């Protein structure tokens, strides 16, 4: 028997050129897509009503943004309560002791404890009130977003001509500040302003403090 | 007659290696694209502020100043400058106003800039982008401008987020 000669099957070499074209065209197209995507995503532009500080006849409605919460601060109400508790000196000789008695005097409301501080600075009497927020009070960002939030109710009780919203903001509460300001300005048409408070600083209003301004 | 065996030649080639290479390449490029896009949209995104004019602003031009508690990055009309500032060691109360203790010297950069802003305060104002690390002493720094009757505005910005002013479009 003849040995079956098995010829090696011939493998026809295909032309690689069409495949290389396909590959390079696809790669090139994807590279272009990559470039355009990066360029488009690279610069987010935010339209901002750039603030300019100015005085106003409107009174501030203060809110303290701390620990990711927003807490209404009735500093004038607490200050009034503290002054009533402090009272008056009985005589001119009791002024010094009366002045010292303001130190550590406390009153409180639903949200804050207000504590008096009195000291002499360069021979000048200086009085200030320390506002300590109560634990767990105020609203979180989620609660703020609700239509029946405490923040909205408080703003709805006042009017935007006689009042503006003033935020005292700590670095850990920027998100809630932005949201609250958006609600106050865009939805409830209040003017607004803000003041930064250092993360390690305590909230203190002094007799020679800065005026809250609208921006 | 001997039967002739003709081998069956088949002209076939395996496409799979090339498609595999193609798919791998596409997968890698897609992953790179998505990663860079995610970084650009997420942590890497900057802010470009476009002025939306309000009655208070009139036609005043903002000069952007980034403040981080130690240095000011000033985006002035002639370029970006860095100037250091440190708060005074103490203040003196006089006529109901606090003044920094005398003897303190401002750095040359910040002095020059304050001088230049003072001269153009009718047409320019200082717009601060305040970083969280600068919250504590920002008002003292801004008082340097207020004391020279330079209008100020300030807006918070996250610690590492780049910021710039875009003036091409002014929206009423």
What are the key terms here?
heterodimer, A: 215 residues, alpha/beta, four-stranded antiparallel β-sheet, 9 strands, elongated, B: 172 residues, two-stranded parallel sheet
What is the gist of this entry?
The complex is a heterodimer of chains A (215) and B (172). With 215 residues, chain A is of the alpha/beta class.
The N- to C-terminal Cα distance of chain A equals: 106 Å
Largest sheet of chain B: 5 strands, mixed
Largest interface: A-B, 57 and 62 residues
Number of helices of chain B: 3
Strand content of chain A: 25-35%
Summarize the amount of helix of chain A as a percent range. 25-40%
Q: Calculate the mean pLDDT score of chain B and round it.
A: 77
Textual characterization of the structure:
- The complex is a heterodimer of chains A (215) and B (172).
- Chain A is α/β, with parallel strands linked by helices and 215 residues long.
- Helices cover 33% and strands 27% of the residues of chain A.
- In chain A, the strands form 2 sheets. Chain A has a 4-stranded mixed sheet, covered by helices on one side. In chain A, strands 4-5-6-9 form a 4-stranded antiparallel sheet.
- Chain B has 172 residues and is α/β, with parallel strands linked by helices.
- In chain B, strands 4-3-2-7-8 form a 5-stranded mixed sheet, with helices on one face.
- The longest helix of chain B is centred in the N-terminal third of the chain and has 26 residues, at 16-41.
- At the A-B interface, helix 1, strand 1 and strand 8 of A face helix 1, strand 1, strand 7 and strand 8 of B.
- Strand 1 of chain A pairs parallel with strand 1 of chain B, so a sheet runs across the interface.
Blueprint (SSEs and pairs):
The complex is a heterodimer of chains A (215) and B (172).
Chain A: H1 17-42, E1 43-48, E2 59-66, E3 69-73, H2 75-86, H3 95-101, E4 106-108, E5 112-121, E6 124-133, H4 141-144, H5 150-157, E7 163-169, H6 174-187, E8 192-196, E9 203-206
Parallel strand pairs in A: 2-7, 7-8
Antiparallel strand pairs in A: 2-3, 4-5, 5-6, 6-9
Chain B: H1 16-41, E1 46-51, E2 61-67, E3 71-76, E4 79-84, E5 91-94, E6 97-100, H2 108-119, E7 124-130, H3 138-146, E8 152-156, E9 163-165
């Amino acid at each position: 028997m003849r040995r079956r000669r098995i010829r090696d099957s011939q493998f026809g070499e295909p032309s690689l050129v069409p495949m290389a074209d396909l590959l390079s065209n696809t790669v090139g197209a994807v590279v272009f897509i990559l470039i355009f995507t990066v360029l488009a995503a690279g610069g987010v532009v935010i339209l901002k009503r750039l603030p300019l500080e100015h005085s106003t006849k409107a009174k501030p409605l203060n809110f303290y943004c701390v620990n990711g919460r927003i807490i209404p601060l009735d500093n004038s109400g607490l200050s009034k309560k503290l002054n009533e508790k402090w009272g008056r000196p009985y005589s001119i000789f009791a002024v010094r002791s009366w002045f010292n008695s303001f130190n550590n005097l406390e009153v409180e409301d639903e949200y804050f404890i207000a504590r008096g501080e009195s000291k002499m600075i360069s021979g000048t009497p200086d009085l200030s009130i320390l506002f300590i927020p109560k634990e767990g009070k105020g609203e979180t960002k989620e609660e703020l977003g609700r239509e029946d939030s405490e923040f909205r109710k408080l703003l709805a009780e006042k009017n935007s001509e006689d009042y503006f919203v003033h935020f005292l903001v700590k670095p850990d509460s920027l998100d809630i500040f932005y949201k609250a300001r958006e609600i106050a300005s865009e939805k409830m048409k209040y003017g607004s302003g803000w003041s930064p408070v250092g993360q390690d600083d305590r909230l203190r209003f002094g007799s020679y403090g800065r005026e809250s301004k609208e921006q | 007659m001997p039967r002739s065996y003709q081998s069956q030649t088949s002209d076939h080639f395996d496409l799979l290696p090339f498609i595999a290479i193609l798919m791998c390449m596409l997968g890698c490029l897609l992953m790179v694209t998505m990663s860079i896009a995610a970084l650009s949209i997420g942590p890497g995104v900057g802010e470009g502020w476009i002025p939306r004019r309000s009655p208070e602003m009139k036609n005043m031009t903002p000069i952007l100043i980034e403040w981080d508690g130690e240095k000011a990055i000033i985006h002035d009309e002639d370029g970006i400058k860095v100037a250091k500032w440190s708060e005074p060691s103490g203040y003196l109360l006089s006529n109901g106003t606090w003044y920094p203790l005398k003897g303190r010297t401002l750095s040359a950069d910040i002095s020059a800039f304050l001088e230049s802003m003072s001269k153009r305060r009718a047409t320019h104002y200082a717009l601060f982008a305040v970083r969280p690390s600068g919250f504590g002493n920002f008002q003292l720094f801004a008082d340097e401008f207020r004391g020279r009757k330079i209008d100020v505005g300030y807006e918070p910005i996250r610690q590492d987020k780049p910021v710039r002013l875009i003036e091409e479009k002014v929206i009423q």
